[in-house]
Amino acid sequence: MNLERGELAAAVQIAMKEVEVSLRSTSGLPAGLSGKALASEVLRDGGPFRIAGETPAEQGGFMFLFMGAASALRNPHSHRTIEYTDPTEAADIVHLADLLLRVIEREKKNRAATSN
Predict the structure, then answer these.
(1) What's 68's DSSP letter?
(2) pTM value?
(3) Residue 61, pLDDT score
C-alpha cells in the first residue's frame, strides 16, 4: 500500500479517485462528469443516487460531503503536485475515502435487496 511505503500523495490521490470512479459507476452517469459536478449531480435531491432512509437534509449533507471531498482532496492533484509531510493527515484522508466508499457500497447493497 502506498501509505505504508510513505507515498502519501499517491495514496491520497488513488483513494480519492476510487471514490469518484465508484460514485460514477454506481450512478450510471457518463464519464464526462467529474469531481464536484459529479457529486452534485449524483447526490442532488431527485438525483440517481439516493442514500436509503436519509431525510432530504441528510441527503444534502452527503452531497456536500462528497462535493467537499472532491473539491478539497481529489481536485488539487489534477492541477498541481501535492506533497504531504504528515503521514497522519494522509491516512485520515484515505480513511475518509474509505468511509465514502462504504456509504456507496451500503447503498448498492440496499438497492440490490429492495430490487429482489
Answers:
(1) H
(2) 0.88
(3) 92
